[in-house]
# Entry
Amino acid sequence: MTHPIPIRRDALAPRLLGTALELALKGVPVLPLRAGKGPFGNCRACGDNACGGRPNMKVPGPCTCPLVCHGWAAATTAPSVLASLAWRAAWQHAERVAYHPGGAGVTVVDLDDADAVTWARETLPSTRTVATTRGEHWIYRGTMRSANHVRPGVDIKSSMAYARWLGPGTGTMSALPSAVRALVVKDPATVRPAGCAVSVPALAAGGECPHRSRSYLERGIAMAEQRITTARSAIHNTVYGTFLAVLSAHGRCGCLTDVHIARLFTAAQTKGESARHCADAWANARTTLGL
# Structure
């Protein structure tokens, strides 16, 4: 009877680093994971927020610590950092490579069991999939807010989160669908603050709305979400301009519902806009159009 030869840690470290460097060259921000699939925590210098970063390894702030110190926020595409002496100890104790999906421009739907996989196959559009120990990762093109336990066995990993690198997967990556974005919106009222309801005048002639078509409206909202989601700069102006365009097309005929508005606000907040700014941008767009 033969027994598998265990991989020595000093042999595993170069292999993990090699994988990390390959991903970094493709623009994927990566970091090492310790045993137990967790990130390396704050060092003494950064503990208790001493470095100026936010607690719980959320955002490093002005920290200049060279160590793997802030969870997902430590993910990098810089080969000089990944292979530095400062990171050597982390690679020696690492078990896996992780990456920051939001930094790579993608969202991972983490399906943790067979029931969750079945739900995804029946509900979500097909996309690139990666097998995991107990389920699958479904990877979509586009970013959003991360959230755990959005439904039984389903987590969303995108901005401010990390995911294990388990290989490139199979299939063609699809654009992030509204069905996935909606998973983190438990109640539209929590996304669209009170007082932002659309109040529009009735049609002057009292006739039927010329574009009260589900497909026309859905296409318009989806295009607006995509415009906000793909913006790389001038986010404030993009959000305002998008709100203005939507209200120009649908603001006077009563087509828009709370659900549509919540989708737009969710897309904007995923890009870092505050709920207050979303409300202000929406109000300013209405004022500009005389609504």
Remarks:
- The longest strand covers residues 94-99.
- The radius of gyration is 22 Å.
- Residues 187-207 have pLDDT under 50 and may be disordered.
- The chain has ten helices and nine strands.
